[in-house]
Amino acid sequence: MRTKLILLLCLIKCGLHAQLIHLEPASSHDSSYYDIRKMNDGSIWLGGEYGILKKINKGNVSSIPYPNNGSHILKIIENENVIYMACDKGTIYRLNKETGDAKVKVYKRFRKKCFYDMAIDNNGRILVCGGTSAIG
């Protein structure tokens, strides 16, 4: 049985520490992770191909449920208790960490585009950049 591995690199003082974490047996539905983000609570979230979303907390790996439309998660950001995920297919997800409520917005004019990165400005507006889809 093939097993997916992720290599986590942590800078410790002047040295580098690597740890392998087994995520799950490999399958055709989760072959790539495109973003990794350390959250305010110390957990690490990974997003990727076909909307796979995982959380690593104290060495335990779990899937995060949300209304996945199959879009590839390319970027994850956190703003207080809200997680935003920029995807391909003109899709942005909004996930409330406290309540678990999730919303998805698909921008029809950008269905054939990817949102590669995003940031939140001082006024709470989300700025998104992207372009032609080269994934999937």
Task: Describe, in plain words, how this protein is organized in 3D.
With 136 residues, the protein is mainly beta. The protein is 0% helix and 59% strand. A four-stranded antiparallel sheet has the order 3-4-5-6, with no helix packed on it. It has a four-stranded antiparallel sheet with strand order 7-8-9-10, with no helix packed on it. The protein is globular. The N terminus is likely disordered.
State the gist of this model.
The protein is mostly beta strands and 136 residues long. It has no helices and 12 strands. The strands form 4 sheets. A 4-stranded antiparallel β-sheet has the order 3-4-5-6, with no helix packed on it. A 4-stranded antiparallel β-sheet has the order 7-8-9-10, with no helix packed on it. A two-stranded antiparallel ribbon has the order 1-2.
